[in-house]
Design a protein that fits this description.
Blueprint (H helix, E strand, L loop, with lengths): L4 H21 L3 H25 L4 H27 L6 H5 L1 E4 L2 E4 H4 L6 H15 L6 E3 L3 H14 L1 H4 L6 H16 L3 E3 L12 H13 L6 H15 L1 H5 L1
Antiparallel strand pairs: 1-2, 3-4
Helix pairs in contact: 1-2, 1-3, 2-3, 2-7, 3-6, 3-7, 6-9, 7-11, 10-11
Length: 243
Amino acid sequence: MKKHIPNSLTCCNLICGCMATGAAFYGNYQYAVLMIVIGAVFDFFDGMAARALGVSSPIGKELDSLADIVTFGVAPSAIIFYLFHEVHYPEMLASADFSLFTFHFSLVKLLPYTAFLIAAFSALRLAKFNLDERQHYGFIGLPTPANALFWGSLVLGEHAFLVSMKFNAVFLFLFMLLFCMLLICEVPMLALKFKNFSWADNKQKYIFLIGCLPLLLLGTSALAAIIIWYVAVSIAFPKFIRS
């Protein structure tokens, strides 16, 4: 019986991802983000349960990756897809169209579908993680849960700005491409795993945690700001992460 507990938790993660995706397609950002957060909790505990019960298995590892693709790849893609329908389009972009055979396409209609690049790059990130032996004590590239939580927090906290005239679809597209690159880049990202609590051995982790404290005051946008801070600290202290 106990061997099924970790996989059951993983399936709960998968179900949360499906629910988040469905909610996002209806523009229900609050519910979508809530399901991503709950999915992240299940994702945290399935691995812990497998190790505690001594029932880790190859199928569990594969199932975990499949669930993560949905919850942390497809669900944030769906959020961005819907956001593309709300953001402002510059006049030049809105009027641009082109033909393919006998069909005419406008960029306004096509651009939202680029949101699913997040899902594709998340899948590539997870595939690399499963095969990369360097990622026992740190990450290479932005973890998919962090990416999903960033987009959820950003859309919830800064929705009014994102759909204002100060922002537009071009900025959203470029910002999305940046995070696609962060998912698969060869930049070491810190993992909050402590072998001991000395300052010398955990300098970058303490700097990150201390910097998080004032960011918590940002409310709904706090997670997005914390993840940007996480990337900044990881880039600023690469030698500590590799060691």
